What we know:
Substrate binds at residues 128, 310. Belongs to the alanine racemase family. This protein is of the alpha/beta class. It has two domains: 2-214, Alanine racemase (TIM Barrel, Alpha-Beta Barrel), CATH 3.20.20; 230-367, Lyase, Ornithine Decarboxylase, Chain A, domain 1 (Beta Barrel). 28% of the residues lie in helices and 23% in strands. It is built from eleven helices and 18 strands. The chain has helices at 5-19, 29-33, 37-46, 57-66, 80-89, 99-107, 133-146, 167-180, 193-196, 340-346, 351-356, and strands at 2-4, 23-27, 51-54, 71-74, 92-96, 116-121, 149-155, 187-189, 206-209, 230-242, 247-248, 253-254, 259-264, 294-297, 300-305, 313-316, 330-334, 365-367. Strands 1, 10, 13, 14, 15, 16, 17 and 18 form an eight-stranded mixed sheet that branches. Strand 3, helix 4 and strand 4 form a beta-alpha-beta unit. The chain is elongated, with a radius of gyration of 24 Å. The structure holds pyridoxal-5'-phosphate. The site of pyridoxal-5'-phosphate has 12 residues, from helix 9 and strand 9.
Amino acid sequence: xxxxxxxxxxxxxxxxxxxxxxxxxxxxxxxxxxxxxxxxxxxxxxxxxxxxxxxxxxxxxxxxxxxxxxxxxxxxxxxxxxxxxxxxxxxxxxxxxxxxxxxxxxxxxxxxxxxxxxxxxxxxxxxxxxxxxxxxxxxxxxxxxxxxxxxxxxxxxxxxxxxxxxxxxxxxxxxxxxxxxxxxxxxxxxxxxxxxxxxxxxxxxxxxxxxxxxxxxxxxxxxxxxxxxxxxxxxxxxxxxxxxxxxxxxxxxxxxxxxxxxxxxxxxxxxxxxxxxxxxxxxxxxxxxxxxxxxxxxxxxxxxxxxxxxxxxxxxxxxxxxxxxxxxxxxxxxxxxxxxxxxxxxxxxxxxxxxxxxxxxxxxxxxxxxx
Length: 371
Ligand SMILES: *Cc1c(COP(=O)(O)O)cnc(C)c1O
């Protein structure tokens, strides 16, 4: 696997440009979407990024050891009372999502010190995390009296930014504008990668860039303006020639022509999903289902043949000619020649899931920047 830090930085610059006048934060949860939180965060910091979001406290602690000066927000809130002092010591800013988060942050880990920095998450219709409108109003009133919390940021999350024309986007924006007004001292944040491309009022003070940084398509059905960051490749372990009527892999899918197979050292244990199999997978036998993923080798696309297994995947390389593929060659699974969103679609999923499922057996090369 090759991770191109210069492409990552180019993507950050493009998103920061599109975010203006808002600042652009980087979302580096789940080990920076599987790419490696340390090298990714260092490269983004060097490119001028100062605000970072993670999901879990442990990710925040890791990031703090990498970037002593960054503003680090933790999406999933406080994890019980013991976590509060760890947050304070590491200067992690919890995103308060519920009354329980608020009560903990008001009462624990702070020896009478005031006020406590935090972000407030208000729900605007996604019904995942976040305070209801009533809770947000009550909090704003209470806090105006006690001043216990110092909400640096009010945020909400959009449910449909990959579909710019979806009516939900504007409804959520209007709801957010009403709620963020309850906290006039705080900055505001609404847009994820797709939200940045909605532009205008969606940008607020701070955008939260995730998938687009890593090369994923921020908006469905449009050309992807981002540069690919990850190239995943597998080695050809064996080349076989079989006759029409013979079968391949688990489930014994029959081939209908004389076929040259490149057997490659990658499988679902590496996050190359079984649902991207070429044929014979019940998941995709429904009419109109996708036909499986393809790889890219020696200038051509070649389809996955039969079922993807734990450690091995078969590609049909017949169309390249008799001696085109040799043991030791590399096939691109996704990268500049094989867009990650296409592979994800073939597997019935999204680029986010492909990236965060990448297995530990890949050798990782970071290029285009210091690690
Ligand atoms: C993951 C996440 C993001 C980043 O979203 P992308 O679509 O990857 O840009 C932003 N905000 C919240 C609350 C998230 O959970």
